[in-house]
Amino acid sequence: MGAAYFYHLTERPLEATLPVLIGKALEAGWRVAVRGADTGLLDRLDRQLWQGDGFLPHGMAGGPNDADQPVLLTTGDASNGATCLMSVGGADISAAEVTSSERVCILFDGADAGALEQARVQWRSLTDAGVAAQYWSEDGGRWQKKAESGASG
Known about the structure:
- The protein is of the alpha/beta class.
- It has a single domain, classed as DNA polymerase III subunit chi (Rossmann fold).
- The chain has helices at 14-27, 39-51, 95-99, 113-128; strands at residues 3-9, 32-36, 59-60, 71-74, 84-88, 103-109, 132-139, 142-149.
- The chain has an 8-stranded mixed beta sheet with strand order 3-4-2-5-6-1-7-8, with helices on both faces.
- The longest helix has 16 residues, at 113-128.
- It is globular, with a radius of gyration of 14 Å.
- The protein starts with a strand and ends with a strand.
């Protein structure tokens, strides 16, 4: 049974944090799906993942090789057998997805009031459904666990 990890981005932007988390997931041997609420954000992340530091093999959903992608950027379901699901831009995650995954990461912008409220709603929804969850926030350049609900995964 997996757990939902909420990442409150207060010091580094999504474009800097996401590649680090993807790298850690790949090191753990997980296939990753990055679910975004809109294609504009995913297009921007796609460009950044190709042009950023290091190489993260990935693809955009809708291509002929989706099932082969170690990291798939999508607005819907993962068709690459992902065991780690990352939500960006307020994309919804269900309790069933958390329990069937190794890990779910929900990344949200601390400077965006709407994103903060969306994350609070998601936290309540998932924890009310009995899903294990952790809330992490950046503090002085380091991630610190600030809250936990249920058994950690």
